[in-house]
Amino acid sequence: MLKVLVNGADGRMGSQVVKAVYDDKELELVGGVSISHVGEDAGVFAGLGTLGMPIRAGLGQALDDLKPDVVVDFTSPKAIFENAKTVIEHGVNMVVGTTGLTAEQRTELGKLAEAKKTSIFIAPNFGLGAVLMMKISTEVAKYLPDVEIIEMHHNNKLDAPSGTAIMTANQIAAARKEAGIEPAPDKTHESLDGARGAKVDGITIHSVRLPGYVAHQQVLFGGYGEYLTIRHDSIDRKSFMPGVILAVKKVGSYPGLTFGLENFL
Ligand SMILES: NC(=O)C1=CN([C@@H]2O[C@H](COP(=O)(O)OP(=O)(O)OC[C@H]3O[C@@H](n4cnc5c(N)ncnc54)[C@H](O)[C@@H]3O)[C@@H](O)[C@H]2O)C=CC1
Ligand SMILES: O=C(O)C1=N[C@H](C(=O)O)C[C@H](O)C1
């Protein structure tokens, strides 16, 4: 049985991961770590009232004590780089769902993992539908290069734009380049800063944050007297769990860095 430690165990995603790992017959949940709810009774915050397991305060100490095979991290964009270094330094494999790592940081973590002979898997989105949305968008972009992204999330999300929107923009820009086609120039003058959103690889991203939303994205392609919209909606965080469990089981077979769930499908 693979031993799994969940970092951010009491969070919106971490508590779902705790339950998904606990329910999987091939995995053994060895513990949870967080900074907000810690201690003997804090297990209830990890989504399982019957967990009977404390939530620990220190990742390094938990790694030493519990000796997991895999750490799953859903914490915060500010913490993830240091968390990942700690896990790799301990020689433990890692599955990262936390957003916010730059391409340079991912490369650095990959090199560290290779040096330590461990594996790190990072995915901005574990939803199958979201991965397909990105894949389809890169195909469409070869024919319809004019595109903007609208991502919509719950109002407690800490980062903007979303990791998924950044990955979508990166992939679309690469596909456009490969196809040798360019979008029409944006001639709009912004009379108010930010009115046209933010640009990633030349692609405009608009971020909506509202209560009631979970995780949603539209990729809008403009054409000649027509337009095409690709939309994905995660209406429940359960949507991410099959991808997380798949990654936990596969990560050890992929040394160094792997980026994106499509590599495991
Ligand atoms: N890859 C994917 O499919 C998905 C990724 N995410 C990402 O996961 C991250 C977490 O999202 P949520 O669960 O909604 O956040 P959340 O705020 O509900 O949960 C994060 C938890 O981590 C804890 N935490 C923060 N810093 C920590 C640290 N240094 N060490 C240990 N625990 C720490 C917090 O106390 C909190 O309980 C975000 O970056 C989000 O964008 C969210 C959903 C899906
Ligand atoms: O914070 C979230 O909720 C989500 N974060 C990820 C992202 O930033 O893309 C994945 C999903 O969109 C949910």
TrEMBL record:
Give the catalytic activity: (S)-2,3,4,5-tetrahydrodipicolinate + NAD(+) + H2O = (2S,4S)-4-hydroxy-2,3,4,5-tetrahydrodipicolinate + NADH + H(+); (S)-2,3,4,5-tetrahydrodipicolinate + NADP(+) + H2O = (2S,4S)-4-hydroxy-2,3,4,5-tetrahydrodipicolinate + NADPH + H(+)
Q: Name one GO molecular function term.
A: 4-hydroxy-tetrahydrodipicolinate reductase
Sorted keywords for this record are: Amino-acid biosynthesis, Cytoplasm, Diaminopimelate biosynthesis, Lysine biosynthesis, NAD, NADP, Oxidoreductase
An example of a Pfam family matching this protein is DapB_C
Q: In which pathway does it act?
A: Amino-acid biosynthesis; L-lysine biosynthesis via DAP pathway; (S)-tetrahydrodipicolinate from L-aspartate: step 4/4
Which principal EC class is assigned to this enzyme?
Answer: oxidoreductase
- Per the UniProt entry, the Enzyme Commission number(s) are 1.17.1.8
Q: Which InterPro entries match?
A: DapB_C, DapB_N, DapB_N_CS, DHDPR_bac, NAD(P)-bd_dom_sf
Which chain regions cross the lipid bilayer? Answer: none
- The segment(s) forming the Dihydrodipicolinate reductase N-terminal domain are 3-126
Q: Where does (S)-2,3,4,5-tetrahydrodipicolinate bind?
A: 154, 163-164
Give every Dihydrodipicolinate reductase C-terminal domain span: 129-265
Which residues are catalytic? 153 (proton donor/acceptor), 157 (proton donor)
| Binding locations of NAD(+) | 8-13, 40, 97-99, 123-126
Q: Which SUPFAM superfamilies match?
A: Glyceraldehyde-3-phosphate dehydrogenase-like, C-terminal domain, NAD(P)-binding Rossmann-fold domains
User: Where does this protein reside within or beyond the cell?
Assistant: Cytoplasm
Report the HAMAP family cross-referenced here: DapB (MF_00102)
Functional description taken from the UniProt entry: Catalyzes the conversion of 4-hydroxy-tetrahydrodipicolinate (HTPA) to tetrahydrodipicolinate.
- Tell me the protein family, please: Belongs to the DapB family.
Its subunit composition reads: Homotetramer.
Q: What is this protein called?
A: 4-hydroxy-tetrahydrodipicolinate reductase
Q: What is the lineage of its organism?
A: Bacteria, Bacillati, Bacillota, Negativicutes, Veillonellales
